[in-house]
Write a structure and sequence with these properties.
- By secondary structure, this protein is mainly α.
- It has one domain.
- Helix content is 76%, strand content 0%.
- It is built from 11 helices and no strands.
- α8 packs antiparallel against α9.
- The longest helix is centred in the middle third of the chain and has 36 residues.
- It is globular.
- The model has no long low-confidence stretch (mean pLDDT 85).
């Protein structure tokens, strides 16, 4: 992998991990579109993948540090009784929303990615992602409530929506935002909760890869490109989060997911035609 290829992949990863347009779908289709023959089993690929996740997770932790400090303080009882109760409840909601992805991912992730992880199929599911976003907008609850009123059942439902992201082309952030909208929270709170539950998922994926990394005997020079990728992915992920939180804050009752839905539909359709006939 060249430095330019690493930069492009890291940039796209940092953006599409948070934008509701499927980072995995882009990771599957982009190399094929650009005729890059990347060896995912090469000793240099694993540290690059791990460091991209480190960069993205660091960006999310950095952006939402106040949330995590408040949650940590509440867990150890540093705040008022009300603050401690609320922090522990939010923490439990994050854990509950994460459990379905952890369970299903542990059992089925490799099977699903091997079954659906071809460029053509990923492009078709990118079309499905666009439809999900646009249908989700039109299915959202009209009466909204604050994020603080999410229930355990709401967290389970949003967590189940998140599992769609194991299919290349289906967006994790998009699915969880749609799940949040259908449970009665607004765009900003749906995005906020989506990004909070993304952090343990991304960190967990990183931790699972570390033992493989330690056994791989990776050349030292490979870490230079991987570190560059982490920085690029982290900066772009932070900027993406900053933009999206402000975008959804201004969304009010507008169909804010529609632009991402139209992008997914258009990009998916064009890539499907390309992979079928090129």
């Amino acid at each position: 992998m060249s430095s330019i290829q690493a930069f492009i992949i890291a940039f796209v990863q940092g953006a599409t991990e948070l934008f509701p347009v499927s980072s995995l779908g882009h990771a599957v289709t982009l190399p094929a579109l650009l005729s890059w023959h990347l060896n995912e089993h090469a000793p240099t690929f694993l540290p690059f993948l791990v460091m991209l996740h480190v960069g993205t997770a660091s960006a999310l932790l950095g952006y939402f540090w106040r949330d995590w400090v408040a949650i940590a303080g509440g867990l150890v009882g540093l705040g008022t009784d009300h603050h401690n109760r609320e922090s522990r409840r939010v923490f439990m909601l994050i854990v509950i929303a994460t459990i379905p992805a952890v369970m299903i991912g542990f059992v089925l992730e490799k099977f699903v990615r091997n079954l659906f992880g071809t460029p053509l199929v990923a492009s078709i599911f990118l079309i499905a992602n666009g439809l999900m976003l646009m249908v989700g907008e039109r299915s959202r609850a009209r009466a909204t409530r604050p994020l603080s009123e999410l229930s355990t059942a709401d967290a389970v439902v949003i967590g189940l929506w998140q599992c769609l992201a194991f299919i290349p082309g289906m967006s994790r952030s998009g699915a969880t935002m749609v799940g949040g909208l259908t449970r009665g929270i607004d765009h900003e709170d749906a995005a906020h909760f989506s990004f909070l539950i993304a952090t343990p998922i991304i960190l967990g994926a990183t931790v699972l890869e570390v033992p493989k990394l330690l056994r791989a005997g990776v050349p030292h020079q490979a870490f230079a490109i991987a570190a560059m990728g982490a920085v690029v992915a982290g900066v772009v992920a932070w900027a993406s989060t900053w933009f999206l939180m402000r975008y959804f804050h201004r969304a009010m009752n507008s169909p804010a997911l529609d632009p991402f839905g139209w992008y997914s539909l258009g990009a998916g359709a064009l890539m499907t035609v390309w992979f079928l006939f090129a």
